[in-house]
Amino acid sequence: MDFSNRQSLFSVLLFVSIIFVQHFTAVNSIGVNYGTLGNNLPPPAQVAQFLKEKTTIDKIKLFDVNPDILRAFAGTGIFVAVTVPNGEIPNLVDVRYARRWVANNIKPFYPQTKINYILVGNEVLHWGPQNLVDNLVAAMRSLHSALIRSGISGVNVTTAHALSILESSDPPSLAKFRPGWDIGDLAPTLKFLRETRSPFMVNPYPYFGYSPEQANFALFKPNRGIRDRFTKRTYTNMFDQLIDAVYVSMKKLGYGDVDVAVGETGWASAGDSFEPKCTIPNAASYNGGLVKKYNQGIGTPLLPGRKFDIYIFSLFNENLKSGATSEKNFGLFRPDFTPVYDIGIMRGTAAVPNKPTPSAPTPSTPVSTPPIPGNKKWCVAKAEATDEQLQSNIDYVCSQGMDCGPIQPNGACFDPNTKRAHASYVMNSWYQSKGRNDFDCNFSGTGAIVNSDPSHGPCSFLT
User: Fold this and answer.
1) d(Cα 299, Cα 138) in Å, to the nearest integer?
2) Which residues are catalytic?
3) 417-455: pLDDT as tens digits
4) What biological processes does GO assign it (predicted)?
5) From the DSSP assignment, how many helices (H) and strands (E) are in the chain?
6) Which of 9, 217, 236, 447 has its CA at a distance of 20 to 30 angstroms from the CA of residue 44?
7) Above 60 in pLDDT, residue 356?
8) What pLDDT, on the 0 to 100 scale, is given for residue 9?
9) 59-61/31-33 β-pairing
10) Which residues in the chain are classed under CATH 3.20.20.80?
11) 28-328 carries CATH number 1.25.40.10
12) Strand residues in 251-365 grouped as ranges (E)
């Protein structure tokens, strides 16, 4: 073989290997929904830096097409899914409008920002109104055509569905889509997705199907399982049961070959008194179990070995969300980047991204004030911190393996039996064990560093 032929062969092999790597890195890690309904959330540039440097998350999903976020994620290698607002659906049926939409919202950022999905609306069949439902597939086709005509071929068009599209899900073998939606709306959607090799995206929430009797089944905890007598498959968690119910329903319409993706799933870590399921242990168990399942790549009983794109809801606790307290507490992180609980997505020790200052560029690692020999420091709860905030701090620290025995009944630091005293003890234990960096005493702004020893009686604070 002469040199030119060998060089051509090498180029082809190199191109194939690049495509192979790109294809499989798209599903390396679990994704997360990045919502912005908060007045205390960090700037997008800090979020992008944090996710890239401190976590294994390599996919985010937006509920809009936020240009500041798209710019911030340019060059990070993190995949970004964007969402067309539901109200735009009728307009997108017009191909000329769709082309202008692509020119304004996608082309300025792609491919520097790795946009991988455009979702046309969110849970359109569930929320309506009917004119949006009637125009959904036509809008998806128009937008796909606009992307192709704009020279963009690496972005998939889809839409996310609430599981109200199912008439039944238990057992999965008897699942089917709701009459009316099945033939009239979902079959045309699936036909488009098959043609464009895009996934059918759903939002399964075992959270909404929770009952105390089935707590372990919902939370990925050990349980006896539930056997589907028709397929002879045993389900050990509700997530698998819901995904297989969707798959069976797709198959009954003749579209079992279309991939499934998970647009939203998650668990609230706090709630009102009427929401006892909303706790940090439950949220950590569900989302942690989901991450473990995803990393193992074991699929479901009917789709063994299948690795789905999954986006956990959500990245941050969002304090401006309406509704019950639980709606504000689906986040994996607080706005200061401290984890609400650990689900195994951090790269080493968590740290807060740098906040830029006018006089100096942002460094690549957090600036901290190291302890001065002989100058002891402690971390305590601020006087203005609420009991709810302090309880959240206690729950977080104790869930991370710290010794919280001293604040339990009969413990050396149980008295005084107040949230503030107990929180100060565990917050200081965390601060001391992590190296006494200032940011380890932040606790969403509820911690303060002091130079006087807060120890009292038999209660000795760590130093």
Assistant:
1) 32
2) 123, 264
3) 999 999 999 999 988 887 777 777 878 778 888 888 899
4) carbohydrate metabolic process; defense response
5) 14, 14
6) 447
7) no
8) 44
9) parallel
10) 28-328
11) no
12) 260-265, 310-312
